[in-house]
Structures are given as structure tokens and as C-alpha cells.
Fold each of these.
Amino acid sequence: MKLEKALNSINTLIISFILAGVLIGILVAAQFQSSVAANSYLVDELNAQKNLLQSFDDDRESLKLKIASVRQQIEENRQKMQLSLEQGNLERLEKLKSLAGFNKLIGKGVRILLAEGKPNNNQPDASFIHAADLRDLVNLLRTARVEGIGINGQRIIAGSTITALGSDILINKVKVVAPFEVTAVGDVSLISNRLSDQSAYPDLYLRIKNKEISFQLEKLEQLSLPAYDGDFIIKFANNNA
Amino acid sequence: MIITGLLMGGLFAFQSKSVTQANNNYNRESRSSIFKEIQVVKKSNQNLNEQLLDLEKQLASSTDREAALETLKKDISKYEAISGDKAITGPGIAVTVQGELEALWFVDMINELYSAGAEGVSVNGIRLAQTSLGFDTIPNGQILIAGDVLEAPYVFEAVGEGKFMSDSLNQSGGIIERILKANPEYQINIEVKEKLNLKPVNSAR
């Protein structure tokens, strides 16, 4: 009887171990599977899409260089023919281009340095600078009637776009990364005054105040903004009506 | 058995964490967003290609007086449209929002319209074509732009490819859905128009 009981206990123990082993096996397999999932199809697809975007970026840079070179040649030819062309037209073209942000702009202004802080465990997003933060800042600077704005080498024109792509930001369809250098040519005291109005950009202001995002303002006697060099084709609008 | 239990518990926790991590990474890289961006960047490159072809034609004719004058006039006309110096007409969309909007929604809507290829935009008849036009919130909560107070209903008019712009705004997770999520009682109407007329930027400004 005692032997039978002992055998039964041993059997129960063995079955428990087998069951535990099977369970562990299933978990180990699931674990391997999940790491494969995290690195395979979805991630591969995202990487392929990012690579595609990178190749588009490379193409764009090459196209921009070609466009700049052809534009310069056209300008040179126009200058050579300046006497025979209507001088007023050339001046008007340059004035319109400046107005629209297609010419370099030099003047007094401010430089704002925005840098991401250390991730906060409670709100990891709070230390990131989002596309919407930059849009709000650009809007705020516009209310200060600035003459021109640039962010990390991209000139902001009326038709500029600032959008999020996952954790990245595209300005004028070009990928930019933090830290952000926002430059604005305009009335320095008016700009400073607008920047001190926390109600104009409450979300970003709060994160700056809480030191989740670093914000540095520098007033400059002279700064230079690049000309807008992105695409802008007029296909549908007609101004001859 | 205790050791086995601990092992199993540990594995459960690890497994759950790795799956959550994978999901977080995926959520941050929204598929619709990356597809949209690929479309946008691809279209931008096509536009640059067209610009280059056009400029090469201009270059070829830039030593001929008549042709050079013609391209100069075309260039002036293009920058008049972009800078808002002249009125523009063309097909597009009119988006009407019934309800009070905060400044951030104006900023985002304009951004979305240009992302979708708008060539000119106006809000309640005010043309937005220069950098110096921002949406300001005055103490009573109203929106001020270039000295004018905007009042609901807000009408955003954009000249461009109407159907494409309408689809972009209406896409899942797009600006219309986001505004309605924040303001479920609002009504938003998008109308594709054959002809819109956008006034020039106020020259008195």
C-alpha cells in the first residue's frame, strides 16, 4: 500500500514536471516568435518604406542642385540681356520672389534653439518636440509680423508644410531632426513680446517651463535665411482672369 | 515546483513586455502616415522634375529676346500667384466648419491643405499667401488674423486638385476626423468646386 502511494506521488510529480516543461516550451517558442514578429514583416515593411523615402530624398537633393544651376544660368542670360529686356520686369520679379520667400533674406532677428530633454517616465512624449509644436511656434512668429522664418535650413513660406512621419518631422517635405534652430527676421522686441505670451502656445510653453524641452532665445543684429528651394508648381491657379 | 513557477512567471512577464514593445513601435510608425508621406514626397519629386524640364526649356530660349521676355512674364505671373499679389481663380474645395475653432485647428487645417497640394488658400475671404499672417487668439477667445476677427462659420477655400484635397482631408485620422473627435457637435462640409476666386492679399496691410 505504502509502495503504491509512493509510486502515485512520484507519477503525479513526473506529470507535473512534464506539464510544466510543455508550458515552458510553449512560452519559449512564443517568445522567439514574438521577437521575430517585432523584427520581421512589419518592421521590414517600415524599413523598406523608410529606404524608399530616403531614395526620394536623395533624388530631390539632386534635382534641387540641377534646378539651382539652371536658374543661375537663366539669371545670367537675363542679366546679359538686361538692356533689351524691360528692367522694370526684372525688378518686379525679384520683389515678388522676395515677398514669397524665394530669395535669401538678411536682417535683424532672433534665433530660438529648441532641444529635446530627457524622457520622463510618466509622460515620455513630453520631452519630444512634435511637428505641431513647430507649427504653433511658426504661427506665433507670424503673429509678430516677421519678414521670414527658417527652421534647420528650411525656409518657411506661406505654403510650407510641417508634418509628422512616425517619430520624424518633415518640413517642406524634407526630413529634419532635433535640435531645432528656428530663425526669424523681424522686429525683435515684438517677437520677444509674443514669445512671452504663454497662452499663444500653452502646450509647448508648459513643457519648456517644466524643463522637459530646452528653449534658448538669442537676439541677433544680423542673420541670414535661405531661399525656399522646394517644389511649388502652379497647375490649377490662374491669375489672368 | 517553486523554481518552475518563478521561471514561468518571468517568461510571462518578458513575453508580455516584448509584445507591448513591438506594438508601441508599430503604433508610432503609423502605416497610413508613412504611405501618405511617400505619396507626398513622390509627388514633390515629380513636381521638381516638371520644374526642371520647364526651366531647361526656359534656358534654351533665354538667349532669344522675344522668348526670354515671354518666360520672364510667365515667371512674374507665377510669383504673383504664389505671393498673393494678384487674385487667383481655379478649381478647388471649400471647407465649411460650423462651430468655434481654436487657433491650432486653423494652423493644422492650412497645413493639411498645402500638404494636399493647395496652390492658394483663404479663410473667410482672407488670402493666406505671405509669411506674416498668423492666427492669434484674442482675450474673448476669438481668432484674429492680420487685424481681422474671424467669425464662424469658417470657410477655408483652396485652389488645387479638388478631389485629391478632399480625399486627403477626409482620410481616416485626417484633419476632419480629428476636429470632429474634439468637437463632436460640429458640422463640417467639404465641397469640390469647379471654380473658386481668391482675392489678393490686402495691399493696405
Note: The domain at 88-198 of chain B is CATH 3.30.70.1880 (Alpha-Beta Plaits).
Amino acid sequence: MQARDIAVQVPTVALGDSIAHAIQVMALGRLPGLIVIDGEQRPRTVLPGTQVLRLAVPPAYQDDPALTRAVDEAHADVFWHELRDRTVGDCLGAHPPRPTVVKASATLLELATLMARQRSPLVAVVDDTGLLAGAITLDRLLSALALARPDEG
Amino acid sequence: MSAVVALAIFVVAFFFIATERVDKVKVVLVAAGLMTVLGLTSGAEIFFSEHEGIDWNVIFLLLGMMVVVGVIKGTGLFEYLAIWAAKRSRGRPYRLLVMLMGITAVASPFLDNVTTIMLVAPVTVVVCNRLRIPAQPYLIAEVLASNIGGAATLIGDPPNIIIGSRAGLTFNDFLMHMTPIVVLVFVTFVVLSRWIFRKSFSYDERYVDEVMALDERKAITDPRLLVRCLVVLGLIIIGFSLHSVLHVEPSIVALIGAGVMLLVTNVEVGDVLKEVEWGVLVFFMGLFVMVAGLGHTGVIENIGTWAADSIGDNYFAAATSLVFGSAVLGAFFDNIPYTATMAPIVEGMAEGADPQTADALWWSFALGADFGGNGTAVAASANVVAIGIAARTGHPISFWQFTRYGIGITVLSTLMAWVYVALRYFS
């Protein structure tokens, strides 16, 4: 079985989309993460759900747990309001992480090792030209693996 | 011919480092590799000679202190102090500015400047956001204070570590010779900052309550960890200052301190090692090999001879050139590669002088290189880090906004350093 056999179409976001929109896309689509694409439909990065959440945390707090603890409850409840109109691109910075991608011909073993190594429950599938062809979620991969159990031959 | 090739490789590499067109670690690795493959260094000797290769004293001193700082970062001490300062100031901008500058200037001699800024800047942004005031003046003032404070000790600023190792200057030497002028410069900066940042001192008292709502006590979750960290840090500093008694190199003290710190705090070693800036360490190694290439092919010796011939017996002129020259060059290039390159040249200049005059040349060099770090937005790593934090948190600082303040402080501090050198060593 290859990546193309289990890939599905998922909603994506662009670098210019607001953080609020990105979270909305992920929540409404019940996705385990988000694929961020550029203007040519190429994946710029693939963010696991926790890293999408990280985008919503104001940068001053992201790497400073001690400062986070010092914030009073009233402000902590509305921390994401501080982001105002910041976009996905603003929060990712100039050097976003490389996208977690596979070619459509990748095997399930390749997919599984990539997801495990990158700690990403979402992988973008690209065609030979590098354009987004679909996505594979952790659920989708696990289902495919379960269906292909050798003892059920 | 080999000297020309070595110089060409060095100049091209320095260009890419200065312009940041390519990752500087890649640049030094390629340049160091070329130097070695082309036979421009002493071959495998680069791993064993501190003067003709990698100065491991510098590398391991940095590594040890990075581990120590990696543990201290997790204690919440700096967040506590910065929030406490903000609350004590009750939102009054000048008082807030002075207290934040004070924290960074006092921390910088013992921790590296980048770490100090990374710990204090986020709190500054949060406080400024709550007061609805721009954070830029505060962040700039903190960086300038950090670069000034870092000049005070052997471990406060990477140029000092390089100079200390090359010249055989101890932690106490730095305390006796650098700290007095650093204190003077810092006090002057604090006084002048009331005027320098005068346009940024308006605020609305209605928002002060939001600052007062921050609870600094929650920043520290493990007071025992904090106490242990401070005790170990204190012991490390005592170890540095007892160099003349114990004859243990600073790098060894830092490594032992790092080991003790890991042992007594029981933190996850893997977590702490993630805090080590391995890229910086590799950058230093490559840089040393690049400079070793210049030394091996005679470039450094030729420049040193030329410099020695030019100054003759006029060491005050040499000291003056070092203070101002280093400040100017250190301001436009990263002051770390500048110091690594110049250190062997200064060594050559100091060779013919009596020990006291030779030391005066080293102090002139250190003061110029350290204070030059404030000159522009790219002159020191702390400046770059602060500008990055400012951009990410929605308070962007442009190159010129930083440089406008930085150049003024660099001119002031360099002039004060020159007067200090003249009065203390040449009068």
C-alpha cells in the first residue's frame, strides 16, 4: 500500500491567514494538525496540533514557563486576545520548520517512521512537482495498518 | 603565496559572517576545512595547540557556563526579579527602565549577555504591553546595559573569554581592571538615559493595576533548586577568583561547576544539554582554525610586525588605536570574530612591552571590543537576540532605531574607556 492509497483531502491554511482562522480550520475539520501552503499550493510547513496551539500563545510566553506562572488568572483566561490580527506567517517567523512531506509513492513503513520521528500526527503528500496532493492523518494510517494485519491474511 | 590564499579565504569568510548571507557556522566550517586541506594550518596540530589551533580553554569555559546557565534559567529567578522591579516601579517609566537596566547589568558579568536578555526581555514586553507603552526603548536600554555589564568580568562577554585565555589574564585581573570603568560607564548611562529616552516616559496610571496583578512569587516553584544553583554559581565564581592560588584553568572550574550543578539540582541532563548553544561552540572552533591559518602562513606575524614598527615605543598611541579601532570595527562586525582575529596581533604588539604596558594594551583591546558591541544592531549576539524577540512580540526595532542609541552610547563609553586607560596606565 502506498501513501496515495490512503491520502485524503484536508482543508489547509496560508501564511497570510489569521491565527484565529487557522485554529478554526483545525477545530472544525477535527484535524490533528494543519498544513500551511504557499501561493503555489506547495506545503511550507506541517504543524502538529500542539504547534498550532503554540501559534496562539503570545511569543513572550512561549519559552518562559516561569513568566507564564506569574500571569494572573484574569489575563491568563484571554491570553490569545493579545495576538490581535497576527497571521500564521508572522508567528512562524522567517524560518518555519521544514514540512513533513512524503511522495505519493511512499510506503506505510516510510509514513510511520516519518510520523514517529517528526512527532507529527499529520503528513502532507506531494506529487512529483512538489504540489500538495493530499494528507495522511495518524488515524488514517493506524486504520490502514490495522486493516492490513498479517494474521488476518 | 600561501599567505595570500589564507588571507583570501579569511576575507571571503569574514564577508559572509558579517553580512549573514550564509549561516555563520557553515561559513567557518567550510573556511576552516579549506585552510586545513590546502595545508595552510599546522594540520592535526590545530587540535592540540591553543595558539596554532582551537583554544579549548575558551570552548570548554563557554560549554561549562552554558550548562550552568541552562540550569539557572529554569529557576524563575530572573522572571521574579524583573516582575518585582516592575511592581516596585509602580509603572513609572524611568524607574522601571533603571531597575530593568540594573538587573541586566548586574546579571551580565556572571551569565552570558544573550541569556540575560532572553530572560529579561519577555517580562519587559509583558509589562510594557500591560502599561500600553512601547517596549522598544526598554529592550534597547537592557541590551546596552547588558553589553556594558558583561565587559566587567572574564566570563561576562565572549571577547573577554578569548582575550583572557590568549593573554593569560585571570578572573581577578578583569575584576580589578575592567570592573571600575564598567561601573563608571554604567552609572553615567543610567543618568543619561533619563534624557536619551525622555520621549518614551509617558504612561497612563490606569493600567498600573494590571502590572501589579502579576505574581512574581509564582515564577519560582522550587526555592531549594534556586538556592542550590546560587550556591554552585557562587562556588564557581570563587573558583575563578582563586586561580592564582589553585592554578586551575577557568574552563576546568566551569566544567566542574557544570557537573556539580547537574548533580545537586537533579535536573534532566538531556533538557539542560538542549540549552547548550552547540552552533556557537562549533562557530568558535571553526573561527580558531581560520585564525590559525592566518598565523601559520605568517599573515598575523606580518601584521603584528607592521603594527609593532608603527607604534615603536609609543604604547599610548597603540592603546588609543586599540580602544577606538576595536570599538569601530567591533561595532560593524560581530565582536567575537573580530576579537579572535585581533588577539594574536595584539599579542605581537605586546611582546616588546613591559608586562604592565602589555596588560594595558590588552585592557584597551577588551574595552574597545566590548563597548563596540553596543555600536550597531549586529555588533553583538545579544543585540540580534533582543531585536528578534522584539519583532516576534510585536515591538519591532529597526536597525537604525537601535543603532541611533547604540552609537551614542558606544562613543560615550569608548571615550570614557580611553580616558581611563590614559589615566590609569599611561600617566
Note: Chain B is about 75% helix and 0% strand.
